[in-house]
Amino acid sequence: MERLRGRVAVVTGAASGIGRALAEALVASGAQVAVADADGEGVAAAAEHLRAGGAEVLARTTDVTDPDQVEALASAVVERFGRLHLAVNNAGIVATGRSWELSLEDWHRVVDVDLWGVVHGIRAFVPRILVAAEEGHVVNVASMAAVRPLGHLGPYVAAKHAVLGVSDVLRAELAELGAPVGVSTVMPGRVRTGMNPVGELDPAVVAANVLDAVRRDRPYVYTDQQSAEEVRARFEALIAARADVLP
């Protein structure tokens, strides 16, 4: 999807952090953008900030755990802009604690947002992108936790692993159709966001890399250089395990 100017994009979790940075980068690239977030006041403020620069923006309060609300968001985007080309499933939350000590409520809450929110986005946005019959793209925001398990983040790691798998499947399915629609999985590291205010990486850096992935149809965006060796060692250990398979 080389050209972003004139394209229509929707970004969930857009009130702050990576989502807001992505909305700003898309607007700067000439896209028309719909921003959504469960934080109604926050997403309204983000939209006003974007409009102040002359952008055409739609803002919707949306709980991505509710498939009906995500479907309504997708319908509103097409009603406002006439079509949809780019969907960014970014909304996410986290809960910390030992896996056996976290409450079931914590497990469900994180998985409902971080995994089911992506699934609901895929189901609502992809059919509309396909109907546009133009170049399109789906961006699913996971985490470096998708490939590097982190202690005390069991529900988050589980959901982000699943997002990576679902994204790979979706990319293969769209390729099988011959559709001009790419899929990128974003795996940022310690980004400075509301969930991680002491993060080391500016969300704008992640956003710039995501837009590059969209333009060049890159399947993965991995911005955490510090953990690269650990990830490589993990995958090498998985491959090496073949030697342990008994006949």
Overview of this structure, please?
The chain is α/β, with parallel strands linked by helices and 247 residues long. The protein has one domain (8-244): Rossmann fold (3-Layer(aba) Sandwich), CATH 3.40.50.720. The protein has 7 helices and 7 strands; from the N terminus they run E-H-E-H-E-H-E-H-E-H-E-H-E-H. The protein has a 7-stranded parallel sheet with strand order 3-2-1-4-5-6-7, with helices on both faces. Helix 1 (17-28) packs across helix 6 (203-216) and helix 4 packs parallel to helix 5. The protein is globular.
SSE inventory with pairings:
Layout: E1 8-12, H1 17-28, E2 32-37, H2 40-52, E3 57-61, H3 67-81, E4 86-89, H4 104-132, E5 136-141, H5 154-177, E6 181-187, H6 203-216, E7 220-222, H7 228-240
Parallel strand pairs: 1-2, 1-4, 2-3, 4-5, 5-6, 6-7
Looking at this protein, list some descriptive labels.
49% helix; alpha/beta; 247 residues; 15% strand; Rossmann fold
In short:
By secondary structure, this protein is α/β, with parallel strands linked by helices.
Beta-strand residue fraction = 5-15%
Placed side by side, the strands forming the largest sheet appear as 3-2-1-4-5-6-7
Q: In CATH, what is the homologous superfamily?
A: NAD(P)-binding Rossmann-like Domain
Domain unit count: 1
Percent of residues in helical segments?
A: 40-55%
CATH architectural name: 3-Layer(aba) Sandwich
CATH class membership: Alpha Beta
Largest sheet: 7 strands, parallel
Q: What would the principal axes of the Cα set say about the shape?
A: globular
CATH topology: Rossmann fold
Mean of all residue-level pLDDT scores: 95
Give the C-alpha Rg.
18 Å
Order of helices and strands: EHEHEHEHEHEHEH
